[in-house]
Amino acid sequence: MILLMASMKQPLSETEPRPAGNISLLCQAGERYLAGGQYMVAQRLLQQTEAQLWRQRNGTALAKVYLPLLEASRLLRQQACEGVIVISTGDDAILQRRLIEEFFRQRAGTLLLGGNAGDRLVLKILEKVRYATRKSGHALESLALLRSGNRWRISSTADPTFAAGLPVRWVQHPSGHGVGNSSNAGEIALPSAGIYPPGSAGATLAGESLLVAHELLALKWQSRHPVRARRWAEMDWLRRAMRVDPACEPVLMRLLSLAGE
């Protein structure tokens, strides 16, 4: 796994230097990369801008950053959910390693990495995967698949606990199945373990389910963590929810509204 991370290529080349320190230049560069379709670079620059403005408590300037940041994160999410879907339940360590290696050959996709709830090795692998996907420069995302007994839950890598996850419903024959379950709207439908190329029935089912899952995970995190009524305290709470889902529209729009005040 370490060799795999070390051998990964750097993000796509850029002809102009990245500005450092100047908040206005950072924001302008982020918006240029967003307009040019380089969403990962745009997201990073806009996140850097947001972090600096947050330290200054500059609400007026923050209000101008959240909309392009949401757009960059949303487009990355869409690419990741429309790309290759790789699902590993962790039953076979050799197979899991092969699936991870195949995942990193992709330019867009989502990896669902499985294991027993509370297994520190699984969490360590997830952290490495999360770091490597971010350094790749590609639209690659990962989520945790955690098992407790015969129950499975899907969780964010920012909060990879069984309690924080959403229940999974396994679909053996994904063709013709919709998202979730009419009797339980929070249940996430997924095909069985394997590699699902774009356009396949399994990828379509999983991609649609994952678009729903990311936002539900952020909203569930909010429901499990109380918020204070004060403006900056609520904004800090919302920024922590962004770690669970950086493309969560309700979170970003609320941040924009509070910053604009």
List the main descriptive attributes of the protein structure presented here.
disordered N terminus, 261 residues, alpha/beta
Report a brief summary of the structure.
The chain is an alpha/beta fold and 261 residues long.
Summarize the structure in words.
With 261 residues, this protein is of the alpha/beta class. It is 53% helix and 16% strand. It has helices at 2-6, 23-35, 39-56, 59-82, 93-103, 120-136, 201-224, 231-244, 249-260, and strands spanning 84-88, 108-116, 139-148, 151-156, 166-171, 188-191, 194-196. A seven-stranded mixed sheet has the order 6-5-4-3-2-1-7. Helix 6 links the parallel strand 2 and strand 3. Helix 3 (39-56) packs antiparallel against helix 4 (59-82) and helix 4 (59-82) runs antiparallel to helix 9. It is globular. The termini are far apart.
Describe how the helices and strands are arranged.
Elements: H1 2-6, H2 23-35, H3 39-56, H4 59-82, E1 84-88, H5 93-103, E2 108-116, H6 120-136, E3 139-148, E4 151-156, E5 166-171, E6 188-191, E7 194-196, H7 201-224, H8 231-244, H9 249-260
Parallel strand pairs: 1-2, 2-3, 5-6
Antiparallel strand pairs: 1-7, 3-4, 4-5
Kindly state the number of beta strands: 7
Average pLDDT across residues?
86
Shape: globular
Ranges with pLDDT <50 over ≥5 residues? 1-20, 179-183
Compute the CA-based radius of gyration: 19 Å
Based on secondary structure, the structural category is alpha/beta
How would a textbook summarize the main sheet? 7 strands, mixed
What is the rounded distance between the termini? Answer: 47 Å
The residue fraction in helices comes out at 40-55%
Strand order of the largest sheet: 6-5-4-3-2-1-7
Task: Assess the beta-strand content as a share of residues.
Answer: 15-25%
